[in-house]
Write a structure and sequence with these properties.
- The complex is a heterodimer of chains A (448) and B (320).
- Chain A has 448 residues and is α/β, with parallel strands linked by helices.
- Chain A folds into 2 domains: 39-170 and 332-355, 3-Layer(aba) Sandwich (D-Maltodextrin-Binding Protein, domain 2), CATH 3.40.190.10; 175-330 and 395-447, 3-Layer(aba) Sandwich (D-Maltodextrin-Binding Protein, domain 2), CATH 3.40.190.
- Chain A contains 20 helices and 11 strands.
- Chain A has helices at residues 2-24, 39-42, 46-49, 74-87, 100-113, 125-133, 151-154, 180-185, 194-206, 220-229, 231-243, 252-264, 277-285, 299-305, 344-354, 357-367, 381-393, 398-401, 410-422, 428-440; strands at residues 62-68, 91-97, 119-122, 167-168, 171-179, 210-212, 289-295, 311-314, 327-331, 334-337, 394-396.
- In chain A, strands 5, 6, 7, 8, 9 and 11 form a 6-stranded mixed β-sheet that branches. A 5-stranded mixed β-sheet of chain A has the order 2-1-3-10-4, with helices on both faces.
- The longest helix of chain A has 23 residues, at 2-24.
- Chain A is globular and about 70 Å long.
- Chain B is an all-alpha fold and 320 residues long.
- In chain B, 72% of the residues lie in helices and 3% in strands.
- Chain B is flat.
- In chain B, 33% of the residues are buried.
- The chains are: A alpha/beta (448), B mainly alpha (320).
- At the A-B interface, helix 1, helix 5, helix 6, helix 19 and helix 20 of A face helix 2 of B.
């Protein structure tokens, strides 16, 4: 009996040891054996890849699988990629979109397994850098067309080794959308300064209209609202100084930006912390609310809700009439070639196509979004007004670009602190202290 | 001689039969192997991997340097992580206490009523159990709509019947958010508790209650002095299950309150915190080492407390 029990325990121990060894034996580099930073890519520089001497006919029956987190864009991409396939008849592009919320896990698993796509939609800034730093992506510095894209946007796809890893896809802008008909109907002028905006909100509220359809059940909506109004309070100089480590978040400029969030609170719907963005969007779309603050990527869903909705954009307004209206922008993802792919050369052809004016134009027209490729013009007046604003007063969105992705994540700390302020759990001073404490823990300019 | 001659082959036959039985009984153990493999792959392996990962630093999904107890230390001593852990632990404890009241105490009382009154018992049993047939995520979204402060059915109803003063921002206020989630969780699990208690009550011989009544015991005394002790195994099972479900609460609170347990972490739980750490929050970077350390603490803590609960309940047996 004792012998049998000992044998059972022995077997259990062996099994456990085998499991632990299996766990230890997992590739610590987070990739497969042949995923050594791109052996394929070492044979092919981006310059070679876009060499006009290399004939399109060299590609024969190549299928490029493209991963994306935008299932809703599938039809539009098919049209755009058809133009590329005409140029390269030997290449077929297979667009494979996944749900945005599951995308990162699916992508990581595919890259680790080494059996994944040839091109991936990569997150911008710190989250994208995690992929490039792990050697999963092919460096494309020098790819045709990249030099035309603004350096600020290329920072979104730069790895910690200084190389460029992706072609920036879209620009996001945090904006205040206003319902043109509601403003007209109530005789309210479109504001040009912050005080005028508060005055307009007061007039609308007095006439029974909810001035701003703001939701707050998800904290990220609040940092988005801050991004839409804050640059008017602190301006691009403050961002430069912050990045140089000359000022921190206790500066009066940042405080003024958070005070704008306090100023807006009376004009939000009652109980707004308990309502969802869907509800807020619905209020704005049907004219129950006059303004809606969110990313410009909400323009298309709003038009789906109400095709007759006439909208305008209010940028981040200055305190005085002589100030410059600004708009917070950040790069929303990019496309990158996978280093372990068998089709790196063909993938780089597609990436070069994505850096062309032709692609940028088609992207803006198909998806009502703004492209980082310069010179894109669209017939859609609303989107064109945003493109114009980007050219005259674009400022980087501080929280999304510089302060997301750390440990602790300062953007997340900030937006939750704003939520805490709105439910009276903390005050404005504590919001600022939370941001400062979080950034001090990891933000590079504060470590000097 | 006869006996010897006739006995020896009989013993041999018996020995052969015994050996055959032993062989067959040994072969039976082989049938466990597939189940053991599945268990090893989907339970033991992840647990071992989590244990292993919790001692390493991570860069995304990439395992980095050995961190020793650094991840555990960071969770318990580094701001704001220590505050988040303490806050989530406090919320999990509240969830357990109130869920115990809702699911076990209220479940027991309803089961006793159903035991006592036969009329409509099956309909009520089915009605109470019905929510269990739905996914918790679906339930979370449905109740989120009902509790919506401005357009939700609950506040509209309260205002409609002249009780507008009771209308609340149920999910948007730190003073009500957690309790609202606990209520929905209780509503979802109550039916199961009722079924378990009812089955335990029906296993008690009716003579016990008849004798007690003949001795003049009131309904409350019968409930307290007979039904509670005689359903002790059911209390044990349900208390342990309530504890486990309270401490692994994720899907419902995620569906109703988002990944940060809004507003301002007031409905945050350890499982949500684990998710944010391991997979990145709303745009945040993943910290698999920290997440694994928290998961390990959670697994060990739940195993120890569950073991203590079983010990407490089995210490004293009530036999008829």
């Amino acid at each position: 009996m004792r012998t049998r029990r000992r044998a059972t325990w022995g077997a259990a121990l062996v099994a456990t040891a085998a499991l632990v060894l299996a766990a230890c034996g997992q590739d610590d580099a987070g990739g497969t054996d042949d995923d050594d930073g791109g052996s394929q890519g070492e044979n092919t520089s981006p310059d070679d890849a876009t060499d006009p001497d290399v004939d399109a006919a060299e590609f024969d029956d190549v299928t490029l699988e493209v991963y994306s987190w935008r299932p809703e864009d599938a039809e539009g991409y098919r049209e755009i990629f058809a133009a590329f396939e005409e140029q390269y008849p030997g290449i077929t592009v297979d667009f494979s979109p996944f749900s945005s919320t599951d995308y990162d896990q699916i992508l990581q698993s595919a890259l680790q397994a080494g059996s994944g796509p040839d091109i991936v939609q990569m997150r911008s800034y710190a989250r994208g850098q995690l992929l490039s730093d792990q050697g999963y992506l092919e460096p494309i510095t020098g790819l045709d067309g990249l030099d035309a894209i603004d350096d600020e946007y290329l920072e979104a796809v730069r790895g910690s080794d200084g190389e460029i890893y992706g072609v920036p896809l879209a620009l996001n802008a945090a904006v205040t959308l206003y319902n043109v008909d509601v403003f007209d109907e109530h005789g309210v002028d479109v504001p040009t300064t912050w005080d005028e905006l508060l005055q307009a909100a007061e007039e609308l509220q007095a006439q029974g209209v909810t001035p701003v359809a703001q939701a707050g059940d998800a904290a990220y909506l609040l940092s988005l609202t801050h991004a839409a109004v804050a640059p008017g309070a602190y301006g691009p100089d403050f961002i430069d100084q912050l990045r140089a480590g000359e000022v921190d978040f206790t500066a009066p400029e940042f405080r003024a930006s958070v005070e704008r969030m306090v100023d807006l609170e009376p004009y939000f719907p009652p109980n707004f912390v308990g309502i969802s963005d869907d509800e807020a969007r619905g209020m704005f779309a049907v004219g129950d609310a006059a303004m809606y603050i969110n990313g410009d990527y909400r323009i298309a869903p709003l038009r789906e809700l109400n095709p007759d909705l006439r909208m305008g954009i209010i940028p981040a307004l200055p305190d005085t009439p002589d100030g410059q209206p600004q708009v917070s922008t950040w790069v929303d993802g990019a496309y990158a070639a996978v280093a372990g792919s068998d089709n790196v050369e063909a993938a780089e052809r597609l990436l070069a196509f994505m850096a062309t004016h032709e692609f940028g134009q088609a992207f803006a027209e198909n998806f009502a979004r703004t492209s980082p490729v310069p010179g894109v013009q669209v017939d859609d007046e609303l989107v064109q007004s945003l493109i114009d604003l980007n050219e005259t007063g674009s400022v980087p969105t501080l929280m999304h670009i510089d302060l997301a992705g750390g440990q602790p994540d300062t953007k997340e700390e900030f937006e939750n602190a704003l939520q805490g302020m709105y439910v009276d759990a903390i005050d404005l001073d504590e919001v600022i202290a939370t941001v400062q404490r979080s950034a001090e823990a990891w933000y590079e300019p504060f470590q000097r | 001689m006869t006996l010897t001659r006739s006995g020896t082959p009989a013993r041999r036959t018996s020995r052969r039969a015994g050996a055959g039985r032993r062989g067959r009984s040994r072969a039976v153990h082989l049938f466990v192997i597939p189940a053991l493999l599945v268990y090893g792959l989907f339970v033991l392996y992840p647990v071992a991997l989590t244990l292993f990962n919790s001692f390493f630093e991570f860069q995304g999904m990439q395992r980095g340097d050995w961190a020793g107890l650094g991840n555990f230390r960071a969770l318990l001593t580094t701001a704001p992580l220590d505050e988040r852990v303490a806050n989530a632990l406090g919320n999990n404890l509240q969830i357990f206490v109130f869920s115990f009241v809702l699911q076990c105490v209220v479940g027991f009382v309803i089961a006793a009523l159903l035991y006592q009154f036969h009329r409509g018992r099956e309909i009520f049993k089915a009605a109470y159990f019905l929510p269990r047939l739905l996914s918790l995520i679906v339930i979370g979204f449905l109740w989120q709509i009902i509790f919506s402060p401005n357009l939700g059915a609950l506040n509209q109803f309260l205002e409609g019947v002249g009780l507008g003063g009771l209308a609340q921002n149920w999910l948007g206020s730190p003073s009500t958010a957690l309790y609202t989630v606990i209520f929905v969780e209780g509503w979802y699990r109550l039916g199961f508790s009722i079924l378990v208690f009812l089955a335990a009550m029906q296993a008690i011989p009716r003579q016990v209650f008849e004798a007690a009544r003949l001795d003049g015991a009131s309904g409350i005394r019968v409930l307290w002095h007979f039904m509670v002790p005689l359903t002790r195994p059911a209390w044990m099972i349900l208390t342990v299950l309530t504890f486990i479900s309270s401490f692994e609460m994720f899907d419902l609170v995620y569906a109703m309150q988002g990944v940060t347990g809004s507003p301002f972490y007031s409905s945050d739980t350890l499982a949500l915190l684990f998710y944010r750490l391991a997979f990145g929050g709303e745009g945040g970077a993943a910290a698999i080492g920290l997440g694994s350390a928290l998961a390990l603490m959670l697994i060990v803590g739940m195993a120890v407390v569950s073991g203590l609960m079983v010990f407490f309940f089995t210490r004293k047996r009530v036999d008829l």
